[in-house]
Amino acid sequence: MSLQYDLIALDVDGTLLTDDHILTKDIRETVCEAASRGAQIVLCTGRGPLSALPVMEELGLKGTLITHNGAATINADDRSVVHQFDVVPDHLLPFINYCRNHSIHFDLNTAFEMMIETRTPEAEQMYSRFQAKPAIQDFRLGLPNGLVKFTAFGTKDKMDQVQAEWAGWPPLLKSIRSGDFFIDVHHAEANKGRALQQLADLRGIDRSRILAIGNYYNDITMLQFAGMGIAMGNSPEEVKRAADAVARSNSDNGVAAALREYAWS
C-alpha cells in the first residue's frame, strides 16, 4: 500500500486524545504506522511545547511541533524555535485588565514558558491535566518580551460572554476560541494554517501532500490549508463544514480510523 501524504498534521486535545486526555493504543499504533511508511508527523496544538512534548514522546516520535495555535513552531529534537510570532506586550494590557476586573484566570506564554499572576484550585486542576507547570509572576512590574500567547480560562458560559465582548475589540491581536473553556489571544497573523504553510514551504512539500485532522475552531485554517482536511466527529458544525471529510469522534479512535481510510491505499 502506498502513502498518500508526506506530512500529517494532528491536533492534540479533542482529536488525538480522548476527553480524558488519554492516547489510546489504536491511535498510537496507527500514527506510528503512518510514520513508518514515511509520513512526517507534526502535532499542531494550542498547547505550549512543554505540554505537547510528552504527547510526542508517548507516540515514540520526534520531529516538529506547531504550538500555541501556530504562534511558535518548535523542533522537538533540540527544543529550538523554528519560528514564532511575537506579541507586542502593551497590546495585551486591555485583555489583562479585563480579566483582572472580571476575576477571570489567565496566563501569559513565551514559546517555552507559562506565567500566571494567581493560582486557583480550578486552574491548578486544569494545568495538571495538560501537564503544564506555570510560574507565578507579578505582571504589574512589567510584561516579559518574547510573548506569543495569552489565554483566558473559565466556564463555558463565561467564555461565551468574553468571546462576544472581545469580538468587537480593535484587531491589533487575534482572539480565538481554542476549547469550550479557553480563549487564546496572539499575533493577528498567527494560526495553525499559516504555521503549517511555513513548514511546508521550508520542507518543499506541496499542500496537496498534506493531511490535517482537527476538531475545533482554531483548527479551521489548518484544515483549509491541507490538501485533505478532516474534522473529528466531535467537532462543532462550523468546523465540519470547513473540512473535506468528517471522522469518528475522539472517543471512538477517530484519528486511527481516518488515517487508515485516507492516509494510505
TrEMBL record:
PROSITE patterns: COF_1. One of its GO terms (cellular component) is cytosol. One of its GO terms (molecular function) is phosphatase activity. It holds the Pfam family Hydrolase_3. Coiled coil: none annotated. InterPro entries: Cof, HAD-like_sf, HAD-SF_hydro_IIB, HAD_sf. NCBIfam families: Cof-subfamily, HAD-SF-IIB. This is Cof subfamily protein (Haloacid dehalogenase superfamily)/HAD superfamily hydrolase (TIGR01484 family). It comes from Paenibacillus prosopidis. The lineage of its organism: Bacteria, Bacillati, Bacillota, Bacilli, Bacillales.
